[in-house]
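Sequence only, no structure available. Ideas?
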Amino acid sequence: MATKEELAEFFEQDFPQANFIIERVGDRSATIRKKITHEHLRPGGTVSGPVLMEMADAALYVAILSEIGLVALAVTTNLNINFMRKPASDKDVIAECKLMKLGKLLAIGEVSLFSDGDPNPVAHAVGTYAIPPVKKFG
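Reply:
I predicted one. Tokens follow.
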């Protein structure tokens, strides 16, 4: 298992491009936040789809690593996302992940994405991660 602080340090060192804040981990779940700036918007003043997909994927990764420890080589094998409404261009994006299955080789989770302060989700994603097998020596 990894704590919120250990995860934040891991992302800062190994994934410096990860520009989000880990708000909460535990109980097979995670919540992360991303500050939305002009660079995250597409024409029409909405948060771009790739930003929302990034947040869904990152929330899954954080939730999984909080349970299995800092396994850098766990990778996304599938991510399905439904965009439900236009996110606010002046609010942070919040991603809340709940793991549905956590096995030895696969993890499956669902993520709801929100504009900060709005209880209605802007997107919903389901993703699968492959977890590398533990190598046994001897």
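The CA atoms of residues 99 and 109 lie 4 Å apart.
Hope that gets you unstuck.
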